[in-house]
Amino acid sequence: MERYYRQQLDCLCKNVRPANIQIMEASRRRWDGIAKPIGGLGLLEELITKLAGIVRDEDICLERKGVVVFCADNGVVAEGVTQTDSSVTAVVTKNFARGLASVNRMASVAGADVLPVDIGVAGDIEEPGVRVCKIGPGTANLLREPAMTLEQALAAIHEGIRIAAGMKDAGYHILAVGEMGIGNTTTGSAIASVMLGLEPELVTGRGAGLSDEGLKRKLQVIREAIALHHPDPENPLKVLASLGGFDIAGMCGLMLGGAVYHMPVVLDGMISVSAALVAQKLCPLVTDYLLASHVGREPACVEGLKRLGLEPLVHGRLALGEGTGAVLLFPLLDMAEAVYRQNKTFSDIHIEAYKRF
User: Would you say 327 and 348 are in contact if contact means Cβ atoms under 8 Å apart?
Assistant: First the structure.
């Protein structure tokens, strides 16, 4: 099965094509013709143009928005790297389906639907509205053994790809990615450390609010886990399996699925950035299909986004997760799209157009 998954993944990645340059050039010309200073909306203009290249259509549509929240538990919680225990993951996963979590409130304002995915919560989730594609009841303790087998990591990636395909078929135009999993700032930081080639101290933060002693323990666990597994950044699947979580693998798959099916995927905070670093190594063109929303409070965000070649629009010191930072981008894109679609052109108002220098 592992060999089958690898072959399927290799085949999918080989079929990914860059965003359409000709459509992007047409989108830029359209922006330049709108009656306003050229480039006046800055990065918002660039994002709309990138979206046009992703969907292969200058006349973009962002009407249907979805937030896919991957939920999973992490065995490393046993090492005292979090304030709370793993039971919180299941509680919050149910709250997503009930519409009670922070991302639900924010998504409702942004006109987006939330899809919670149980890809590895410890215990059974039977709440209506939760998509269950559980790879296992949480990962193993990465300080003692690999967090996942390679087959499990690949299976989780393929679940993410399938979800992207399903959202495309359901008529969604843009996706945001989120996560929920106690302990996943440890797994995310460990992956970021390896993929960026930086010491754990440079990429690891306090997560949901660790004390000084808690942060010291978290760093110790990450250092020892990396020393135990010797993960090679040139082998991203091994990095993911050794140090990651089912949520990170699922997000990685959703990003790859976005590239395969020409759907834009908006990143959230550090954990999604770590997933994107793995996806980029598996398929360098995936970044053509990714949008950065914000630069979060975790230290890995800045260097991770820089490595991905993505520029965030929001600098808000967020550290909530769930996809909350990603959802922030949706209303901003809607505003930019309104200007792009509805504003008068220079020729409409009989004024000489600005020139680009």
Answer: no
User: In this structure, are residues 75 and 29 in contact, taking their beta carbons and an 8 Å threshold?
Assistant: no
Q: Which two tokens stand for residue 295?
A: 């630069």
This prediction has a pTM of 0.96
Q: Given this model, what pLDDT does residue 262 score? A: 97
Burial classification of residue 118, based on how many CB atoms lie within 10 Å of its CB (0-12 exposed, 13-18 middle, 19 or more buried): buried
CB 210 within 8 A of CB 218: yes
CB 193 within 8 A of CB 273: no
Let me know: does 313 contact 327? Beta carbons within 8 Å: no
**63 among known catalytic residues:** no
- CB under 8 Å, gap of 24 or more: what pairs does 88-94 form? 88/182, 89/121, 89/122, 89/180, 89/181, 89/182, 90/121, 90/122, 90/123, 90/125, 92/180, 92/322, 93/118, 93/121, 93/125, 93/127, 93/130, 93/180, 94/125, 94/127, 94/130
pLDDT bucket at 322, cuts 50 / 70 / 90: very high
The pLDDT of residue 191 is: 98
Active-site choice (179, 303, 322, 337): 322
